[in-house]
Automatic annotation (TrEMBL), chains A, B:
Pfam families: Iso_dh (PF00180)
Entry keywords, A to Z: Oxidoreductase
Family label: Belongs to the isocitrate and isopropylmalate dehydrogenases family.
The protein, known as: 3-isopropylmalate dehydrogenase
Species lineage: Archaea, Methanobacteriati, Methanobacteriota, Stenosarchaea group, Halobacteria
Entry-linked SMART domains: Iso_dh
Residue ranges occupied by any Isopropylmalate dehydrogenase-like domain in the UniProt entry: 4-322
GO biological process: isocitrate metabolic process; tricarboxylic acid cycle
Length: 326, 326
């Protein structure tokens, strides 16, 4: 069966790392049909729209989407794209790789971030000159869906359960609902959990990241705490992510457009290629996914390396080396 | 002029570190009148109320309050106490000390956290079985008051300006109002600012804390990011804080009740004693404040040390050593 893969490079280094990941996927000779589409600052400049309707529709119908990065329009692109695939969870592994300088080399975490609501609901008002409000929405149904995914996620692998991160001592009703719902689903499934306040998590993960493994959290907490974990593993450069929906999914590196190096051909393609490995696993190509992960890890360890990792190789050199090692 | 100082030890090690800080203040022979009051889990057990009205009233009338810690009732104690002193800013220095193991020893930050609104407004609802909401409030007036404080804060010392941390790419109206208001006040005062997204801040502060100095942020961002900085300097054990209002203020260590060591007499009093040094500065005793800071730093460097810092001294030993060095 042919799988249709939407490819949305976007802006900046997205134009360099996305083709690199596609080259890796092509090298595996799977029956993929790649369809490219535009999004981001550049297309907005041309057409007035950061996310053209065709691009949205493509992501909403393709089996999977690979997205690069967007510039100033990032939120106008990525939030609707997440909605296009109806993605209820953002899976964000944050793992230190051998050979890469890390603040905390023992970090190996996976964030399962709620991906539809919280402060991302987009309900804001300017009530008076002085007062603005935002309605933060937390639903039992979204919390349940996330928790079911989390239970499935930790059962498939060598995990002992997961941590529920929240701020229910202040957001008693909303994060209370989140925490209790997630805990209830975990209990029903016989999955062990512990509960950690989001501020305490921030301290504890710096002091000893090994005490955590899989972390289930609301939308903004997942945004900030996974970026914190990115800092612990040495930067956003190596972090992949998967936005999973019931029927399709969208994969993207966590990094942005890196305007300082865009166009120079030296962007590190690793995060996007690891995102492509997550795409492979999502579509059932587990063996191929493992091969890509292994080839990326070997290349991070033995080179060639792009300048961000202290080397002087180009994006193309690194991509070729990964393909050679497949 | 006598200053009335409310002393609220609270629960757990609050009962040990608060008297230690009072002993240091007493050793300075300033004309302080200390008045003690209860709050926390223990008084709730007895009376049904975590924050008795007398305690609230005392904090609302004293010149300054020194608070220790509260257990499960922490939010029920500290949030009303912050309101009692009408504190619009929470000042949270996060600095690594020589002689103390830190993930990032070069960390030297001060968070100026908005202290009255954001998700702390307490406006929550369970709309249906499925849906709960929280109203996040951001006002121009609170943002202005914070920004004026921040401008004053950076002018008094060797600071180059401050960073405004926000998430206005998602919370466009509310954090947009926050960011623009703070920036406007800074511009009027000729204070330099830069703007950093809260998630990007979390990554960047781990990678290179020295790129930041004074950080101005909304309430929850300040809560989480200052706890992150606590992780970078080696834990909550050494972090003081000041909740500043127009006419009075409340000082507290950032750490909690430490139930694992409470009652053993080995709690590290440093964070509370540094909080007392902030109290001295607030009341105009700059020279005495400097002496306390210096005595604490010398003791952290040369000992004696409590077990959390690898020593075997008691709270009393450390307190005596600090007093000897005043
Ligand atoms: C660009 C922004 C809207 C987005 C988010 O906040 O989710 C980004 O930070 C991310 O984490 O993918
Ligand atoms: C106890 C809690 C309500 C409080 C907060 O969230 O402000 C604490 O985490 C703090 O930072 O002082």
């Amino acid at each position: 069966m042919t799988h249709e893969i939407a490819v949305i490079p976007g802006d900046g280094i997205g134009q360099e790392v996305t083709p690199a990941a596609v080259a890796v996927l092509e090298a595996l000779e799977i029956d993929f049909e790649f369809v490219e589409a535009d999004a981001g600052d550049a297309v907005k400049e041309e057409t007035g729209e950061a996310l053209p309707q065709e691009t949205y529709d493509l992501a909403a119908s393709a089996d999977a989407t690979l997205f690069g990065a967007a510039g100033d329009t990032a939120a106008d692109v990525i939030l609707p794209l997440r909605e296009a695939v109806d993605s209820f969870v953002n899976v964000r592994p944050a793992k230190a790789y051998p050979g890469v300088d890390a603040v905390r080399p023992e970090t190996d975490l996976v964030f399962l971030r709620e991906n539809t609501e919280g402060v991302y609901s987009g309900l804001e008002d300017r009530l008076t000159q002085d007062v603005s409000t935002l309605t933060r929405v937390v639903t039992e149904s979204a919390s349940e869906r996330l928790a079911e995914f989390a239970c499935e996620y930790v059962s498939g692998d060598d995990h002992d359960g997961f941590s529920i991160v929240h701020k229910a001592n202040v957001m008693r009703e909303t994060d209370g609902l989140f925490r209790d719902t997630v805990k209830g689903v975990a209990d029903e499934n016989g999955v062990e959990t512990d509960q950690v306040l989001m501020d305490a998590f921030a301290t504890r993960v710096c002091l000893d990241p090994e005490q955590f493994d899989v972390v289930v959290c609301p939308n903004l907490a997942g945004d900030v705490l996974s970026d914190l974990a990115a800092g612990l593993v040495g930067g956003l450069g190596l972090l992949p992510s998967a936005n999973i929906g019931p029927d399709r999914a969208l994969f993207e590196p966590v990094h942005g457009t890196a305007p300082d190096i865009a166009g120079e051909g030296v962007a590190n393609p690793a995060a996007t290629i690891i995102s492509a490995a997550m795409l492979l696993e999502y579509l059932g190509y587990d063996e191929e996914s493992d091969r890509v992960h292994a080839a990326v890890e070997a290349t991070l360890e033995d080179g060639p390396r792009t300048p961000d990792l202290g080397g002087d190789a180009s994006t193309g050199d690194v991509t070729d080396a990964i393909i050679d090692r497949l």
